[in-house]
Amino acid sequence: MNTMRADVRRSTIITGAILLSGILLRVWGIGQSCFWYDEAQTLMVARLPLGDIARTAYRPPLYHYLLHIWDLLVPSTEGWLRVPSLLFGIAALLLVYLTAKILYGRGTAWLAGILAATSPVLIYYSQELRMYSLITAAFMLMLLLTTRVVVLRERQTYWHWAVLWLAEVVALYSHYFSAPFLLAIAVLAIAVSTWQRRWSTLRAFLAVQSAALVAFAPWGLVIRSGRSGLSDYTASELLPVNTSVPQVRDFIGQLIGFYTQGPLIWDTALDRVLGLVAVAGIAALLIYVVVRVVQVRRKPETSVDALLLRDAFLLAVCLLPTTIAAVLFHFRPGVVSPRHLMMLSGPLMILLARAAVALWQLAQRYRGVIVWLPRVAAIILVASVLLVQGYAQYRNMRYPERLRPDVRALVDLTAQYAGPNDLVLMSYYDHAFDYYFGDRARVFHLDTRVPDADLMDWALPRLQGAQRAVLLRWVHVYADPRDHLSWFLGSNGYMVHQAWSSDRLLSAYELQNPLEMPEFVPQQVSADTVRLASAALPKQMPVDQRLPVALEWRAVRPPGVQLRAAVRLVSPDGEVVARDDRLLMAEQGDATSERWLENAGGRNYYLLEIAPGTAPLTYSVEVSLYTAEGEIPFTDSTGKTIGTSYQVGMVSLGRAADLAEGYLPDTAMTAVERELVPGIVLDGYQLDRDTIQPGEGLFVTLFWRAIADRPQAREITLEIVHGDTPVGSQSGAPVHGRYPTSQWQRGELVRDRRLLRAEVNAPKGNALIRLQLEGGESLDLGSITIAPSTRSFTLPEMRYPSDARFDAVGALRGFDLASTALQAGEPLTLTLYWQALNQQALTRNYVVFTHLLDASGRLIAQHDGQPDEGRQPTSSWLLDQVVSDTHTLVWLEETADYRGLATLEVGLYDPANSQRLALPDGSDRLILPLELTVK
């Protein structure tokens, strides 16, 4: 008797300690973190009048009704409002223990309780103002009751069935994803009852299911009305900017991380390994059950032991909903989140405990050394699960802001830039921000899914008069992907601050009143299947602001492919100083171009980040259009090809509104930080290559900083020095002579890019790059290698000689073509032989055009590209150098059926402005002296 009492006392102490530790882990820090978006939204709905909750919840609203009542009874703090979730989480922990105990006994129940008590996912949702701990507790109650009546074959009273019915109704009215779990339990219970021929149990169970469906019928009317939120799952689609489609294996990986680490998956190598050990434990149990089931089927006389039925039932309860979710994920990638399968968390803890205990008990069947193998495996399994869970929970407690962003910090930062008469703009509804921010400023949630003109017609009158505006972008919300709001604010003001806070990007602007829409200037160019209808860009702006550019694209015919536009800010010498590449997207639905029909499209917005140190000069804004296959040439209103780059306009950059403190941290440069002459400091430099050939050049970028106003004008000289002999030099004022030091102001940064060429007869070997400022000491920047020349200066044999000179750039000395008989639609290979005529280094990289024309002069095939596929650009040509240049002409889709005579034309043009080089007779193209036949 005393032994029994001691055993009961010990059991009570162990069980109590497990439950108490689980409770403490769930209570710890419950009110420390802010409400995040979903929590604030849930609270917002729960605080509506009772009659409005069901109309607004767009999900089964039981949790909202419970929270509505609770909110009336307790203080409105995060900790108190999360108490219902805490209570449901504690109930789920207790039910895990009880279910494991009736299935497998006290030892397995203790281990399952320990695993559930330390489970990061169960702890997290016990502290969240959402319904997930409620549906977990409801499901565990269903599993406990169903197990007792179906698996253990216990006789039950009406109260048992009534509680089961209540648990099912609670689950159905809490979340749609309770349905797969109810379906799994129903299917398994019906199958087991039928197999056991327990017809009375089957009838009672079916009656409970029918009663639960009848109880859910009122919400079915809400589903039919379209206000249930079910379309979020049935009509969901991938975001148009996704570069790949998530696969089911990705979803399974997310599940493993979620159930071992919680919602915040750290994804370290250790976490992955330990998570796989946990999966291996359940897999081993599954294999064991499958083998035993096969044995029973092959030998009907083999008895089905009680443990086998329990293992199979519990595994099936987990596998069936997971399979349903995986199928949904396959057809609707991304529609299912691991949290939707929260009800798996309880059974999984029991299965892990069962697998560990089964391995431990397996040792009793063996003798000798082998007896330790299953026990070592059991220890590894339990230790791995506890380690990965414990480590994840430690990190969650150490960094709570990573679990739930600190919205209060975001609110405080926003309040620094937005007062009562200012604006806070969002392209989404941020319930968490609204909850904490209140009415400190005018807050507008702008729906960027409507046409841009309609949005601005509504918003402009309401936004007038504000001195400042704060734009918030949340990384977890796909809204305003074209950056319409950022472009609008950048076109009407200056950004004064930008920072990340609480997973949001905050951009604060000083506004220029009155706010107005920039003028869109009509354009007359096309690029195959789309046309550039209009463009808007500022005529002038400070150099430290993002350049806002708007381009309106329209489909001439369905493109059928994804198109991207690259908008560039180009200096007078052709350097690209800023760039923004984006997919073309329609205004409505954010559809990318492969889904456009004729005349679809809309305005697309580009924000060019100008790096500190860019000189305040006049720049051109250019755009090119391309696919995965390459660039698409533009044509003007007459159908004439004007190149692969089109100049949209010019912009004059003025001095910075606020001087930058320094160059960006990721600027690629070698630090110097030395004052070379009074008032001028060289912060660093960059060499774009370390090996050149005689006659070739390298770009040397000098990063200057003025420490005095208007320092004395000084010439800057760069030299390539081999031994003691200069073998290449370049001199002039900064930024190609356009921004002398006498114009600099104190604190200003100036980025100075220079092309430094080696002489044609420069000897091979190591050489130094030497910098000299007029009136100052010289400074050696770094070393390069001058390699032996691989250039050719001898003309090869060619089938068709020629002598056509294009300005002072190059002469076409001949060409090769395999045959004058062409096959329609098949690529045509043409090799041109150029000889350089330039006496000095060229600063432009000209593009060669090769066009096949039909008898009427219509373009039917073409290829444009730099000489030798860009390997020998014209900027690298030396006098008399011979360049072999092969082009493969591709047929236009609409001309592939042409038959008849054809001719070839070739020439060169400047891609910056599409200006062609002229021949001596003034023409801008050479018709090759061949008559071709297309068959």
What can you tell me about this protein's structure?
The chain is α+β, with helices and mostly antiparallel strands. It has 5 domains: 2-229 and 247-400, no CATH class; 407-511, 3-Layer(aba) Sandwich (D-Maltodextrin-Binding Protein, domain 2), CATH 3.40.190; 521-654, Immunoglobulin-like, CATH 2.60.40; 670-786, Coagulation Factor XIII, Chain A, domain 1; 800-934, Sandwich (Immunoglobulin-like). It is built from 23 helices and 37 strands. Strands 27, 28, 29, 30, 31, 32, 33, 34, 35, 36 and 37 form an 11-stranded mixed beta sheet that branches. Strand 18 and strand 19 (680-687) form a beta hairpin. Helix 6 runs parallel beside helix 17 (345-362), helix 11 (178-196) runs antiparallel to helix 12 and helix 11 packs antiparallel against helix 16. The longest helix is centred in the first third of the chain and has 30 residues, at 269-298. Mean pLDDT is 88; it is low at 238-243.
Question: Helices, strands, pairings?
Answer:
Layout: H1 2-27, H2 37-46, H3 50-57, H4 62-73, H5 78-81, H6 83-104, H7 106-117, H8 120-126, H9 132-151, H10 158-172, H11 178-196, H12 199-225, H13 231-234, H14 248-261, H15 269-298, H16 306-331, H17 345-362, H18 372-398, H19 400-403, H20 407-417, E1 423-426, H21 431-437, E2 442-445, H22 452-463, E3 468-474, H23 484-491, E4 493-501, E5 504-511, E6 521-527, E7 530-536, E8 540-542, E9 547-555, E10 564-570, E11 576-583, E12 601-608, E13 618-627, E14 630-632, E15 634-635, E16 641-643, E17 646-654, E18 670-677, E19 680-687, E20 691-692, E21 697-706, E22 716-722, E23 725-732, E24 749-757, E25 765-773, E26 778-786, E27 800-806, E28 810-817, E29 821-822, E30 828-836, E31 847-854, E32 859-865, E33 882-891, E34 900-910, E35 915-916, E36 926-927, E37 932-934
Parallel strand pairs: 1-2, 1-3, 8-17, 20-26, 29-37
Antiparallel strand pairs: 3-5, 4-5, 6-7, 7-9, 9-12, 10-11, 10-13, 13-14, 13-17, 15-16, 18-19, 19-21, 21-24, 22-23, 22-25, 25-26, 27-28, 28-30, 30-33, 31-32, 31-34, 32-33, 34-35, 34-36, 34-37
